[in-house]
Amino acid sequence: EPEVTQTPSHQVTQMGQEVILRCVPISNHLYFYWYRQILGQKVEFLVSFYNNEISEKSEIFDDQFSVERPDGSNFTLKIRSTKLEDSAMYFCATSRDRANYGYTFGSGTRLTVV
Amino acid sequence: QKEVEQDPGPLSVPEGAIVSLNCTYSNSAFQYFMWYRQYSRKGPELLMYTYSSGNKEDGRFTAQVDKSSKYISLFIRDSQPSDSATYLCAMRANFGNEKLTFGTGTRLTIIP
Lengths: 114, 112
Prior knowledge:
By secondary structure, chain A is an all-beta fold. Chain A has strands at 5-7, 10-13, 19-24, 31-37, 43-50, 53-57, 65-68, 75-79, 88-95, 104-105, 109-113.
């Protein structure tokens, strides 16, 4: 069964450093999303991305965050200057079309900011 | 009031029992309802989805939506130890709105 692949599985970074989280979507999927889950809390929407632009973002997704598809296959989430409160699991999700009620999630990247 | 509320559990039941998991919500704009299963250190896996009110069955799983009460349920029949996981409800508004709003998840353990 096709999978959404995320790398790295775990990243430790110092506060103030930039991090890039990577996702390889399922090959025929066109809609891409990032969600995060702080330990013990619910999964939260960050951003949706289609046709090389952001289609929707949450209030969490401020100027410190950006997304792009640098090479037409990978989908990345960049955090410019990490804060302690950015520590969380970050999930990439993809879907083939907007009519799809649910998305395929990757296994996540655990980001630890120290 | 939280937009989506879900009892975090933990919930432990013996193998073979019927499991009932529930969520309530406050946003009447929600029209698409999903249940995800999440194993430890894994991403959410879509189990069931329904549109508006009604029931949907898939094998041992049945999803129910009651929009008038703003209440959704997932029933698991003949529960197995492999069903032990965290179950997340998720909801979405109209077709053009792509954001999923999740509940906190219920941790379920099936005791052999």
